[in-house]
Every structure is written in structure tokens, then in C-alpha cells.
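Onboarding guide, step 5: your first structure request.
Type a short instruction followed by the sequence, for example:

Predict the 3D structure of this protein.
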Amino acid sequence: MKVVFMGTPDFAVETLKAISGAGHVIQAVVTQPDKPRGRSGALAFSPVKEEAIRLGIEYILQPEKAKNEEFIKQIRELNPDVAVVVAYGKILPKELLDIPKFGCINVHASLLPKYRGAAPIQWSVINGDEYSGVTTMFMGEGLDTGDILLQKSVKLDKKETGGSLFDKLSVIGAELLVETLDGLEKGTIKRIPQDESLATQVTVFDKSFGKIDFNKSATDIERLIRGLNPWPSAFTKLNGKTLKLWDADVLTYEDDSLPAGSIISVGKDSFIVKCGKDALEIKELQLEGKKRMKCGDFLRGYNPEVGTVLGN
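The system replies with C-alpha cells like these:
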């Protein structure tokens, strides 16, 4: 099939590679404009643009807006069979959606209609879901509201993080998209309308979302830590310095004599923090200005006192 691929971040790279490897003709890659990065402010390519160059794809489009008339004209002249959209980052106008013969197909990192919108991977971990997965769907004018084509689920590990689930779903999404294109070409895929009564909408995170409220249960906080690993990270304060928490275990604890956030025990390889319900054993962390490290390594150079309240 003749394919226009639209995507920007790392998550989309596996799908681009899979389409190329499956023998489809990638007519063009559409990605976000280059952006300044780092202290130098030098322009950096998106991961998708870097992969397109590696694959030898010469026609790379980077419109500021998807509604740009010249951009839409360029896509219309290509007359693609299908457009594949994976975390492109811009809403597509109806004029663009109507161009490809088989429509625009989106790879979405959730089991729709659950988790429409941004950051579905992190939310799945934070909410303690047993399963997550990927959906391929026809794109319409609504946000993730189009008809479902194919889905594949994956069971979350006990220590699943946002990062580890991201890696799993990017590979699953690539495989599912190739299967979807084959089914569209053969006419074997049925469109399944989404059940609106089951729809849930989620939003993107900013860094402030990671601030830990120790009045919450240890289970909720432990999921937050995993869901926001590696970005934007869950954090608190220790003696005025930002302390990122990367790994923790939930422990049963029932003593109400100390406030939530109190360090109740310091061992050789970990320390324990009281929560609104139960407690957290901190296993991996990162103090402001320091590298990420195992808690045991941290405790060899830093001795937090029992009774210290995190977050103050």
C-alpha cells in the first residue's frame, strides 16, 4: 500500500520501521518541526525524523499546522492509500482525513474506549490496571472516538513502569498496525463502533503532577511512582531538597502516632515512610543534584533521621 506516515516521538518509531519492513511504500513522513534542545538551543530532529532519514525516506514534511493549505495540497497530490498516525501531536482537519483511499488509521496505546486522550500508558499504571494494550482505529474528527479495527492486550507486571509499558506497547502497536493494513487491503477487517458508555478521557501530565501526597495510601503512591517513571517522575522534599522516588514497596503499617510522610525506620538498604494508609519502603531514589541510585548507596553517604517528615 502507498502510505503517508505521521508521527513524532519514540513511540511511533517502531511502527514506522514495521511498515517499511513489511514492504509498503512510504510516500512521505510527516512529523513535528525541529525544536531547540539543551543549553545551546540547537535544533533537534524528532525521533521519527531521525528514523526516516536512517531508512532513506527523502520526503519529510514538517508543517507548523496540519490545517496548512500547502501541506494538505502536498498530501492530496501523493494520493495515498492510507495515512498512519502514531502520536503525531496535532489534530487533523476533516479535509485531510478524507484524502486517503482507506482513511487515516491511528495507533493508540490503550484498549479504547478506555483512556482516550493523552498519556494513556502512564494512567494505566497509576490506576493499577491488570491489562493495557493497543488499539488501531479509524480516525474521525473527535478525539480517539473512531471505529475500532484491531486490539491486542498485555498483562501488566507487578513492577510495571510507564517506561517499560511504553516499550512493550510500541512493539505491539507496530505489529498490530501491519496486521491492520493487511486486513484493510484484503477487506477482512470489520469496523467496531466504540461504546460511548465505557469511554474515559485522560489528560497529559506536567511536572507538578508528580508531587507526592503522603496522606494517600501507600498503594496509590507506589503506583504513581511507577507510572511516572521515567517522566515526569514522582517527587517530594527531604530537608528542603527535591527527592525523586523511583522504586518502592508497599508495607502493612497501622501506627497513627506520626504524621503521614514521616520516616519511621532507616535500615542498611532502605528506609520506610508512613503514608495515609500503610507505608512505603524506599528502594531507589535521586536527591537533588545527585544521580539516580539504589537506596543502600544513598544511605552510605546520607543518614536521614527517623521522625523526619518528607514534603516539608
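Each response can be followed by summary notes, for example: The mean pLDDT is 96.
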